[in-house]
UniProtKB/TrEMBL annotation:
Keyword vocabulary terms for this entry: ATP-binding, DNA-binding, Nucleotide-binding
Binding, ATP: 345-352
Pfam annotation, one family: FtsK_gamma
Region (Disordered): 25-63
Family affiliation: Belongs to the FtsK/SpoIIIE/SftA family.
InterPro entries (UniProt xref): AAA+_ATPase, FtsK/SpoIIIE/SftA, FtsK_alpha, FtsK_dom, Ftsk_gamma, P-loop_NTPase, WH-like_DNA-bd_sf, WH_DNA-bd_sf
SUPFAM superfamilies linked to this entry: P-loop containing nucleoside triphosphate hydrolases (SSF52540), Winged helix' DNA-binding domain (SSF46785)
Lineage, opening ranks: Bacteria, Bacillati, Bacillota, Clostridia, Eubacteriales
Key word Disulfide bond present: no
Name of the molecule in the record: DNA translocase FtsK
FtsK domain mapped to chain residues: 328-518
One GO cellular component term noted in the UniProt record for this chain: membrane
Length: 663
């Protein structure tokens, strides 16, 4: 470096704020005796452009002779560079730790919150935010003017920022699994999914010694009872579930299975059991299954099955957590694969709770734009609790005549979707939605039609209802429309042969007779069920039904879930339909409603028409709002119903004012 400058031997090297003040004083003292010697510093690299590198930037070197300033920096430059790099490294490590902590927090939150946190930290990653110390800013600016450091280091800082941004892009915050299929290019605002904390935690399981004793005792009684009837068999294994234990019986060579099946009542007597069910043989095993109720039944909590990886990691938004089988394994059913479901059982068997678990499973997993419900509840008490959630296409239909019109609308929607598929050259809803996402357009939602009591609809209009259900069951799967039909009267006049032939997946709860069991499942067995959620699940493609203990969800838990979705916003009902005899009084609807002019003015101002818009602004019921929409359609103010899209407004404000003046 050469000989050390004299003034550095005479005074100690200043640091921090003292260094800045020293540079300023030195510059002033150097410029006072000979200001004409001071010359602007212009790096050679920018001479051709005529642009001063220090323009618009504060510099402590103003008025300081270049020779003394270079001499000062020749001695202090290594120390300054080391302090600068150490400062930048320390701040960068601190910021990186904050980013990692934010990522870990955001991973546990909803996608929209995670994305917001990530964007805010990415904005704070600019290098100028890291260099907040006045000392470093002043010294860096002076060095840039003297050495031409601006171009090189600025490029370096940009590259560091690019590296940080690239790392963040390569490791984005992962949203919930259910949101990936919607596509990243579609800018639909996502709602926060409800947390599982709304559900009751299952109590801590305690291993009871009585369970092992009960199993050994029952196994010995089974072998002893069969030996009394001259049948040699041995219990080789067992599977213990929440309410049922299945004993696997290995008969001796030459023993007919039918002999064991015929002793069902005698085995129940020896075991002191309410009823037993014999599965002969067990599918996939060379054994006979004897299902015996447990002395102490253990309830299956809904949260317990939702937290199971089979449910939480399932890719389908229509995955339904049914409960646990006799081996204690979680049973998951995908409505998209069924593709339609028939649920039947007597009063008090658990049918309504199963419907609630089915709906709640979807509400815990799917956004409103992914899945839409159309609920038909002639009993008016089972599904009306879900009114107001954004997943509904329309308020819960309770009038049987309106239910017929609702099913007719679903058939029309199915036909419209197939027309869209044909025009786009695709075969199903999944392919069509992928095409829409590639165009950054809103995809069509899946539609689940829930009918809580089919018997009441069949009493009002059996021919029309049966026709619509059969058409949907035959064709609606590829259009993304799925049926879930429940009834507590599993008779042949309700579950007709045509309906049963087109709905392959079925759930049977406890029924009173073997005839009802055969009506539902085409086989006996449901009459042996215990009730209170005990079911036989017979999905499409399985050779025999599977015994499942249904998960229990309370009314309080459903209320919390519904209130959560209601707080997300007012539902925008896309469907407006009524019964076939809306004009029951034979009067002109236009003359009856005084809100019609204001309703027309409102839809023209907003540029779209929907019943929910009228409900919110005028605080009226859905029926009146839907009637206003129908009147405006008859008058030509709005267009006809176009599926999931809002109605188009055809009248301008000038035409409305002219119509209002003529009226």
């Amino acid at each position: 470096m050469g000989e050390e400058p004299r003034f550095y031997r005479e005074i100690p090297a200043p640091k921090g704020r003292d260094l800045i003040d020293y540079i300023k004083n030195l510059g002033q003292s150097a410029s006072q005796p000979a200001t004409e010697k001071a010359r602007p510093v212009t790096p050679p690299a920018n001479q051709d452009t005529g642009v001063s590198p220090g323009a618009g930037r504060r510099s402590p070197a103003q008025g300081l002779s270049v020779s003394k300033f270079e001499e000062l920096f020749s001695y202090r430059r290594p120390v300054l560079l080391e302090e600068l790099e150490r400062k930048k490294q320390k701040e960068a490590e601190k910021r990186q730790g904050e980013i990692l902590a934010a990522q870990a927090t955001a991973m546990e939150m909803a996608p929209v919150v995670a994305e917001t946190i990530t964007e805010s930290f990415q904005e704070d990653m600019s290098p100028t935010r890291l260099l907040t110390d006045d000392e470093l800013l002043a010294l860096t600016s002076a060095w840039e003017e003297l050495e031409g450091w601006d171009a090189e280091t600025a490029d370096g800082e940009e590259s560091e920022e690019t590296v940080v941004q690239t790392e963040l892009e390569e490791k984005p915050l992962q949203p919930l699994e259910i949101s990936k299929e919607a596509g990243a290019s579609w800018q639909e605002p996502q709602s926060v999914l409800p947390p599982l904390e709304f559900l009751t935690l299952p109590p801590t399981e305690q291993t009871a010694n009585d369970d092992d004793e009960e199993i050994l005792q029952n196994a010995a009684l089974l072998e002893q009872t069969l030996s009394h009837f001259g049948i040699k068999a041995q219990v080789t294994d067992f599977s213990r579930g929440p309410t049922i234990t299945r004993y696997e019986l290995q008969p001796a060579p030459g023993v007919k299975v039918s002999r064991i099946v015929g002793l069902a009542d005698d085995l129940a007597l020896s075991l002191a059991a309410a009823d037993i069910r014999i599965e002969a043989p067990i599918p996939g095993k060379s054994a006979v299954g004897i299902e015996v109720p447990n002395r102490q039944a253990r309830p299956v909590y809904f949260r317990q099955v939702l937290e199971d990886p089979q449910v939480s990691k399932h890719p389908s938004p229509l995955a339904v957590a049914l409960g646990q089988d006799i081996a204690g394994e979680t049973v998951v059913a995908d409505l998209a694969r069924m593709p339609h479901l028939l649920i039947a059982g007597s009063t008090g068997s658990g049918k309504s709770v199963c419907m609630n678990t089915l709906i709640a499973s979807v509400l815990f997993r799917a956004q409103p734009w992914q899945v839409k419900f159309l609920m038909i509840d002639p009993k008016m008490v089972e599904l009306s609790v879900y009114n107001g959630i954004p997943h509904l296409l329309a308020p819960v239909v309770t009038d049987p005549k309106q239910a017929t019109a609702a099913l007719k609308w679903v058939v029309t929607e199915m036909e419209n979707r197939y027309s869209l598929f044909a025009a786009s050259g695709v075969r199903n809803l999944e392919s069509y939605n992928q095409l829409l996402v590639s165009r950054q357009e809103q995809p069509l939602p899946l539609i689940v039609v829930l009918i809580d009591e089919l018997a009441d609809l069949m009493l009002v209009a059996s021919k029309e209802v049966e026709e619509y259900i059969c058409r949907l069951a035959q064709m609606a799967r590829a259009a993304g429309i799925h049926l879930v039909i429940a009834t507590q009267r599993p008779s042949v006049d309700v579950i007709t042969g045509i309906i049963k032939a087109n709905i392959p997946s079925r759930i049977a709860f406890a029924v009173s007779s073997q005839v009802d069991s055969r009506t539902i499942l085409d086989m006996a067995g449901a009459e042996k069920l215990l009730g209170r959620g005990d079911m036989l699940f017979f999905p499409l493609g399985q050779p025999k039904p599977r015994r499942v203990q249904g998960a229990f969800v309370s009314d309080r838990e459903i209320e919390r879930l519904v209130n959560f979705w209601r707080q997300q916003g007012v539902p925008d009902y896309l469907v407006g339909f009524g019964s076939e005899d809306n004009n029951n009084e034979g009067k002109n609807l236009e003359e009856e409603d005084e809100l019609l002019p204001e309703a027309i003015r409102l839809v023209i101002q907003y540029g779209q028409a929907s019943a929910s818009l009228l409900q919110r602004r005028f605080r009226i019921g859905y029926t009146r709002a839907a009637r206003l929409i129908d009147i405006m359609e008859q008058m030509g103010v709005v267009g006809s119903y176009g599926g999931s899209k809002p109605r188009e407004v055809l009248m301008t404000m000038e035409e409305f004012e002219q119509w209002l003046g003529n009226a």
